[in-house]
């Protein structure tokens, strides 16, 4: 059975991101290899991966070699560094600016967990008062998490360079202190 994963901000091939984000790698080759290994350690060939932008900055050939080594069916939410990815559109199931998904979850009152996916953090989003989650990237772990909001940075810099499964995201959301802002029926 396939699983669902979320991640962001790999910046494959981007030498300067090591310095900009204080990544613990000696060079871009080491960074790429560690992130490819951690991706494939968790993600199988038929698993679905929602990547929330800034996939990589590399030559078209180098980017293609990297992305072809990654397991899974990859959906891409566009970030601010997607030239390489847009040049390899065929590797992605789709590429969008923004997306909302519904995941079957028997623990939810209506059996569905809604998630808003966007490269950038939002203060409010559709359904936030009803328990809809928001996952984002871009901030490289530098944006303080808000315990009372059902959102967080899914980027690799905030998660030891690993993607997170739906169940891992769910555990993080359950640990938050969010409460409904008003009583209503789930949409």
From TrEMBL:
It comes from the Bacteria. SUPFAM superfamilies: Metallo-dependent phosphatases (SSF56300). InterPro entries: Metallo-depent_PP-like. This is Calcineurin-like phosphoesterase superfamily protein. It comes from Pedobacter caeni.
């Amino acid at each position: 059975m396939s699983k669902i994963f979320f991640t962001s901000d790999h910046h494959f091939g981007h030498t300067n991101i090591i310095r900009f984000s204080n990544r613990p790698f000696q060079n871009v080759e080491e960074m790429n290899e560690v992130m490819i290994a951690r991706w494939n350690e968790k993600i199988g060939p038929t698993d679905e991966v929602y990547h929330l932008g800034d996939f990589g900055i590399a030559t078209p050939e180098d980017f293609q070699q990297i992305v072809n080594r990654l397991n899974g069916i990859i959906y891409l939410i566009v970030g601010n560094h997607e030239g390489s990815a847009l040049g390899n559109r065929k590797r992605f199931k789709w590429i969008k600016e923004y997306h909302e998904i519904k995941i079957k979850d028997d623990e939810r009152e209506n059996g569905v967990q809604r998630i808003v996916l966007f490269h950038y953090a939002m203060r409010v989003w559709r359904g936030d008062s009803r328990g809809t989650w928001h996952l984002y990237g871009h901030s490289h772990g530098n944006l303080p998490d808000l315990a009372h909001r059902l959102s967080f940075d899914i980027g690799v810099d905030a998660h030891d360079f690993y993607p997170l499964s739906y169940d891992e995201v769910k555990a993080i959301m359950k640990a938050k202190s969010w409460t409904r802002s008003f009583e209503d029926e789930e949409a």
